[in-house]
Structure formats: C-alpha cells, structure tokens
Design brief:
One of its GO terms (molecular function) is methyltransferase activity. By secondary structure, the protein is of the alpha/beta class. The protein has a single domain, classed as Vaccinia Virus protein VP39 (Rossmann fold). It has five helices and seven strands; from the N terminus they run H-E-H-E-H-E-H-E-H-E-E-E. It has a seven-stranded mixed sheet with strand order 3-2-1-4-5-7-6, with helices on both faces. The N and C termini lie far apart (47 Å).
Length: 165
C-alpha cells in the first residue's frame, strides 16, 4: 500500500488534471526522460514511469515526504525512478541532464516559477515540454509558448514548449 504522511501544504495534482495531462502527452512515454520537481506525492513521476518513461528523476525537499517517496519507490520496485532530496530550484541549477518532460508544481507562495522558467530551457531536449501547475494563471515569458492549458478549481495548469522560429 502506497502511503504518505499528513503534510500541511502538500497538494497532489487532482486526478482529472493528471488524466488530462497524460492525454496531452500521449498514452505512452516510452523512452522519454522525465523530471518531477517538487515531487510531493510523486503521482506525476510514478505515472510517467508506469507509462514507459526510460528515466524519472523526482526532487523533493520535505524530509517526511521524501521518506514516503523512498518507501513507495521500494514497494513499487521501480528501477527507472530516482529520488533526490533537494530543493527543486537548487537541483535545476546544478543538474546538467536534459529531459523530454519536466513537471513543475512549486510552492504557490514562492518566487520559484519565474526563476525556473529562465533555467529550464537549458534542461530540455529538443521538442521537450514543461508542465506547469500554479495557483493563478500565468503569462509565460519568451521563449516559451503555451501548447495547452486548463483550470480545475484553484489549479491552473499549462503545457509549455520552447517557441519554434
């Protein structure tokens, strides 16, 4: 049984939003590399792994949530998922890997989102996408373009890609 401690502020992505996102991405992520920053429950990363992602890196700073992610990783025996106990912004600044899909759902009250949108173009493979979840609608700066967007209650979500010239 997968379990998580009761941690104030943890906002798992609603099921219908997750279903919409994976419809946008296609039903399979076979061979793709994924990064789940601010992983929280890990739902996005574990879903990507279950859909054939070659590698999924999950980043979570909260120690209790990190421990739950590590426990669930053992229970699920996912050999293609790697959990990192770091702040998502710090990880993005230091990690040199490139990804096909990046999921970001930073704390809503933080200033992380604009900073991440500056960093992440260097972390994407060609034709890579970034899924952004936020508490308010955002206007994305260049070089980003919005491929798809939606809203479910208080959750605003967008699928972004670097604009092709």
């Amino acid at each position: 049984m997968i379990s998580f401690p009761d941690v104030s502020g943890l906002r798992p992505t609603p099921d219908r939003v997750r279903e919409t996102l994976f419809n946008w991405l296609g039903q399979t992520l076979y061979g793709r590399t994924c990064l789940d920053l601010f992983a929280g429950s890990g739902a996005m990363g574990f879903e990507a792994a279950s859909r054939g992602a070659e590698r999924v890196d999950m980043v979570e700073w909260n120690r209790m949530v990190l421990q739950a992610l590590q426990d669930n990783l053992k229970k699920l025996a996912c050999t293609n998922v790697f959990v990192h106990g770091q702040d998502g912004l710090e990880f993005s600044l230091r990690d040199a890997r490139r990804y096909d899909v990046i999921f970001i759902d930073p704390p809503y009250q933080s200033d992380y989102l604009p900073r991440l949108l500056e960093i992440l173009p260097q972390r994407l493979n060609e034709n890579g996408v970034v899924y952004v979840e936020s508490g308010a609608a955002i206007d994305v700066p260049p070089p980003w373009q919005v491929l798809k967007s939606g809203r479910a209650g208080q959750v605003h979500y967008q699928l972004l890609q670097i604009a092709q010239n």
